[in-house]
Amino acid sequence: MFKLANDTAIGEYLRTAILKKYESIRKFCRAYLELKDGQTDDEEIRKLLNRFSQILKGTKRIQTDDLPFVTELLDVSCEEVLSAGKTHVPVSSHTTNYDIAFSKDRETWEKYMKREDKLFLNCDEYCKSVIDYALEFKNYAFIKYLLDEHFIWFVNLSDWKGFGFTFGAGTSVKRREVGYIDTHTPIEIQSQDRLRTQTIALAIENNDIDILDALLAREIPELHSVNFFYSRAEAPMEKNDDLLRAVALSDNEAIINYFSDEFPVKNLKYTNRFVFPHLGELIDLMLENGRYRNAEICIRKAIRHNKSVLNGLNTLIKEAYEFNRSHLGFSPDGMDEYLKKQTMYDLCYDEMHNLVKYFYCPEMHKYVGLVSNYIRVTSDKSNALIKELVTELNESCDAILSLKGDAE
Fold this sequence. Notes:
By secondary structure, the protein is mostly helical. The chain has helices at residues 7-21, 25-37, 42-57, 67-74, 78-82, 97-102, 106-113, 130-136, 140-148, 184-191, 193-205, 241-248, 253-260, 279-288, 292-326, 336-344, 384-401, and strands spanning 152-153, 170-171, 263-267, 270-274, 348-350, 355-363, 366-373. The protein has 17 helices and seven strands.
């Protein structure tokens, strides 16, 4: 028995599942109609796209008639769809060598032979290929199909060397590039941070707080590359919507506190303090879902963090100004504007990633400075208290961004 999710949750789940497999909702609708009717036209796609737009927004419930096609196209179960991904059961439509070898349907065979993962070339967990099973089940029609379409042959004397094993048997199905064999998982683990963040999302859903530190749950790799001298990433910091949703909807106060607390990151020999880089989006999501109490906790901590960054920058800028003034070697009368510009030269912002850095050099090979992030909230969903707190938070953010002023 599983719990039926509400229409909004089902819509959010379906949107995520569709966009993981298809480039757009429109392309999914095209595939839906091709599966359902064997053909498509622009008007039918438009109608289906309009209906699914309402389903994905949660203003309309998915229909029973949709489920066979949705589950087939997304390779998920009805239970997974209707529980918004909370309940998982084996999918009967999952393609296996065993099932294909039983099939009498040519269309099913053709889809199988066109698979990009080259399942035809591989054995299953019992070390049996589809041909092994087809012969075992006496599915001659399938074997004949493979022969007629020249996917396999058992006799080809043109290249036969007479070694005595076969009469030049072979297959036209080409192997995948050797570089992709037995490398997918190692490369994926090494290059896809999403595997880590997806694991964190699952840990949160299971209230496993103890593992969060081990997985550096609040951190992203880019934070370990920013320092006084380099504070700009090459691309937007990737966020995992499943992770944000898991935190935003959590009822565990320890998890809320964990993701809103400051934490240290050491780079080179310097340690700087950050907050969860997507805390602003997390607060927005909490507000959109009516989680005002959790949002209040996060906003108050974000305010403290922003003000701490602002105070730290102001202190450093004042120190740097006094240092520059005292080391001119002559009376600085009338040179205030020049000194201010020189002092502010190393105040830099990376607004794409909400990062700020500042440093000065009081002596050779010694640097004093600060690198951190700042938080802004954009959601307008709030009560009176939240609205007041969001205003204070965003004002502290604006104060950080206005420090440089005209000293460019």
